[in-house]
Design brief:
CATH class: Alpha Beta
Strand order of the largest sheet: 3-2-1-4
Helix content: 25-40%
Strand content: 15-25%
Oligomer: single chain
Structural class: alpha/beta
Number of helices: 4
Number of strands: 4
Length: about 100
């Protein structure tokens, strides 16, 4: 199965990716930064990583190509919340586009 994991380098996302790769799924990892890509361990060499913002349709659309399942594991950081972003923004976007 072709899977997209959003929030790929967080604790939950990295665990999901490791399991999916172990089960031989084709995985696209989507996150705002590659800064924590080492959390993926050896799985980082067996995925396609796409850097982008879930609320930026232009960066998310390429990640969605040929995907059969989307797993969203994001968490908003305090910095993001200070910018006025909230989970309702993400949930609303996903209901329209995922």
């Amino acid at each position: 199965m072709n899977i997209l994991v959003v929030g790929a380098t967080g604790d939950v996302g990295s665990a999901v990716i490791k399991t999916a790769v172990e089960k031989r799924h084709k995985v696209k990892a989507f996150d705002i930064s590659k800064a924590n890509i080492d959390k993926l361990g050896e799985a980082k060499n067996r995925i396609e990583f796409i850097e982008g913002d879930i609320l930026d349709q232009a960066s998310l659309e390429p990640a969605m190509e040929a995907v059969e399942a989307v797993i969203i594991t994001i968490r908003l950081t305090p910095g993001e919340m200070k910018k006025g972003r909230g989970y309702k923004d993400v949930e609303g976007w996903c209901q329209k586009h995922c």
